[in-house]
Design a protein that fits this description.
single chain, alpha+beta, 7-stranded mixed sheet, about 55% helix, elongated
Length: about 300
């Protein structure tokens, strides 16, 4: 009995060492922190019931298991059509943001969004087909060989390479260029927040790119909104600021963002794409149910 317990404990310890990587893989595939955790837990159940004595690389084995779980989940979404693609039929669906404090990021959150996987990129990943998304995430983000991805997808390595290449072209073509200087981005977000609070339309125009795009996801009960152009987005920012008594600087997927509160209740999470010191993209989650699930405290 003691030998069996020791083996189980050893297996659990090895799994825990891989858990951060597995969470990161699953989050990029699913765009949901909760679903990513479920996928990782399913991988543990698979591991605990499998004979892995012949497995040379446990991390790679677990990554392929998580890949299969996520692929099934993505295919299930597509068949149910529960999650419309961004901007499809006027609807916008944003992935779950990963929110943490600006000065002391949550270590778990840091792992999930390592390499600055911003909301804008996650939105583009939502537009890929399930097999394209799995191929792109595993190969381009985690360097999994095509032979290994082919096992997950049930395709040839050559076909998998083509899927990843097609997905890469779509991602590169749709992902906006963004500044990487966190200090600069923070300054721009602070200027946006101050101008919104003050109702300063002209000041907003100085920080918004003329072709800025703002997307909001209000969930099933609140209409989603897609706005284009600095004037329209500035007017929306001023109007919304009147209802948000409190806006706080945070990190959203590792970059400066804003959480707005009213009466201690979160009203929105805003993620910014900034290029050459101007805001080119605003992604705003206002869905009450999903905001509540994030556990944000004022």
């Amino acid at each position: 009995m003691s030998g069996e317990i020791s083996r189980t404990e050893l297996l659990a310890a090895r799994f825990e060492a891989e858990r951060p990587q597995l969470r990161s893989v699953a989050y990029r595939m699913l765009g949901s922190v909760a679903e990513a955790e479920d996928a990782v837990q399913e991988a543990w159940l698979k591991l605990s019931r499998s004979d892995t004595d012949g497995v040379r690389n446990l991390g790679a084995w677990l990554t392929t298991v998580v890949g299969r779980v996520c692929l099934d989940q993505l295919r299930s979404r597509a068949s149910r059509r529960e999650d419309p693609l961004p901007e499809q039929d006027g609807q916008v669906r944003l992935p779950d943001p990963v929110v943490s404090g600006p000065a002391t990021p949550d270590p778990v959150h840091e792992i999930l969004v390592a390499d600055s996987v911003g909301i804008a990129l996650m939105v583009v990943l939502e537009t890929l087909s399930p097999v394209e998304r799995v191929a792109f995430v595993l190969h381009d983000m985690f360097d999994v060989p095509f032979d290994g991805i082919a096992e997950v997808l049930g395709r040839t390595a050559a076909s998998t390479r083509q899927l990843a290449s097609r997905a890469r072209r779509r991602v590169q073509g749709a992902t906006p260029a963004a500044d990487t200087d966190d200090g600069l981005k923070r300054g721009v977000v602070e200027a946006f927040l101050a101008a919104s609070r003050g109702g300063d339309f002209d000041a907003l125009l100085t920080v918004l790119d003329p072709e800025v795009v703002a997307r909001s996801d209000g969930g099933t009960l609140v209409p989603s909104v897609l706005r284009r152009g600095a004037a329209d987005v500035a007017a929306q920012a001023i109007a919304f600021a009147r209802f948000a008594a409190d806006g706080r600087l945070v990190l959203v997927n590792g970059s400066p963002g804003v959480v707005s509160f009213a009466g201690g209740r979160p009203l929105s999470v805003m993620s910014f794409t900034i290029h050459r010191g101007r805001i080119t993209g605003l992604d705003i989650l206002t869905d009450p149910a999903r905001l509540a699930a994030l556990g944000l405290g004022a």
